[in-house]
Amino acid sequence: MAIAVTPFSNVIGATVTGVDMRRKPDGAVISAIETALERYGVLVFPDQAMSPAQQVAFSARLGPLEPTGNIDARLDNHPEIFVVGNTGARPVTFAPQFGSEDLEWHTDHIHRDVPARASMLYAKEVPPDGGDTLFACMYSAYDALSSKDKASFNYLNAVHSVTGLRVYLRQQSGDKPYDEGRQAPVPDAVTWPLVRHHPMTGRKALYFGAKVTVGIEGWSQDKALAFIADLTVHATQDAFVYRHVWRVGDAVLWDNRRVLHAAMPFDLDRYRRLMHRTTLRETQQVV
Question: What pairs with residue 138 in β-bridges?
Answer without folding.
Answer: none
